[in-house]
Design a protein that fits this description.
Oligomer: single chain
CATH class: Alpha Beta
Largest sheet: 4 strands, antiparallel
Shape: flat
CATH superfamily: Dimeric alpha+beta barrel
Helix content: 25-40%
Number of strands: 6
Distance between the termini: 12 Å
Order of helices and strands: EHEEEEHE
Strand order of the largest sheet: 2-5-1-6
Number of domains: 1
CATH topology: Alpha-Beta Plaits
């Protein structure tokens, strides 16, 4: 088995404007989907939701605020899963709730 990271990119949304009941439904979809991967014994590390603010360090010590307003999507969170192949890891990504809102899932092998 190999490790793969699933990176969840979603359109920039103001989650503070989503009604509480709707937000609960969104959270439940994520919990159910991640729980399904865990039930298969394929979840290595439950990812964490990333904050909207941050910094970007570039060559020469240049530091900028990020993410940037002009970016249409954000890297919202990630999971680390175990799978036999990239194809199997991609199959695990199907059903991700990010896909319901126009988002995407990037699947990448982890070296190590």
């Amino acid at each position: 088995m190999k490790d793969f990271v699933l990176l969840f990119r979603q359109p920039s949304l103001d989650y503070s404007k989503i009604p509480a009941k709707e937000m609960q439904g969104i959270v439940k979809k994520w919990e159910d989907w991640v729980g399904g991967i865990g039930a298969q014994g394929k979840l290595k590390q439950n990812g964490m939701r990333l904050a909207a603010e941050g910094k970007v360090l570039k060559a020469g010590g240049v530091i900028t605020d990020g993410p940037f307003v002009e970016i249409r999507e954000i890297l919202g969170s990630f999971l680390v899963v175990r799978a036999d192949s990239l194809e199997e890891a991609t199959t695990l990504a199907h059903g991700c709730p990010a896909l319901d809102t126009g988002g995407s899932v990037e699947i990448r092998p982890v070296f190590g």
